[in-house]
Design goal:
- The chain is of the alpha+beta class.
- It has one domain.
- The protein has one helix and three strands, in the order αβββ.
- Strands 1-2-3 form a three-stranded antiparallel sheet, with helices on one face.
- A hairpin with a 2-residue loop joins strand 1 and strand 2.
- The mean pLDDT is about 80.
Length: about 120
């Protein structure tokens, strides 16, 4: 009658233990990554909402990019740091041609048009 384990039994048990614990570790790591991505999306949405509200509160003449067309008070690119992560805000202000305003074809200058804002948010880590 033998007492103890053979080398093969120890290696098989070690391999099975390694597989189980590495699976648990990888699941934990994936969970942390998903939580971080969700947090970043919530922060980006909050920044975008704040920027849209900031633009809504500007006067009509101030809506535009500094040195751009239309000229205004907004910077084209801005970086905000929230919780140690950099969020790059890129703004583009364009005029929209609407036939209801009496302009039927797009032109280079649309003085009767209200600008619409395109806010692009990038996260840089």
């Amino acid at each position: 009658m033998k007492k103890g384990f053979t080398l093969v039994e120890v290696l098989v048990a070690s391999a099975l233990t390694l597989i189980v614990f590495s699976g648990i570790f990888l699941a934990y790591q994936l969970g942390i990554r998903v939580i971080a991505q969700g947090r970043n999306k919530v922060i980006a949405s909050a920044i975008a909402s704040g920027e849209i509200e900031k633009i809504k509160n500007l006067s009509y003449d101030a809506i535009g990019i500094v040195g751009g067309f239309p000229d205004g008070d907004l910077e084209q690119t801005e970086v905000k740091i929230v919780n140690g992560a950099d969020y790059t805000i890129e703004r583009r202000i364009d005029y929209v041609v609407d036939e209801a305003d009496g302009i039927s074809a797009p032109t280079d200058i649309c003085p009767n048009e209200k600008p619409y804002c395109l806010l692009i948010l990038h996260q840089v880590i």
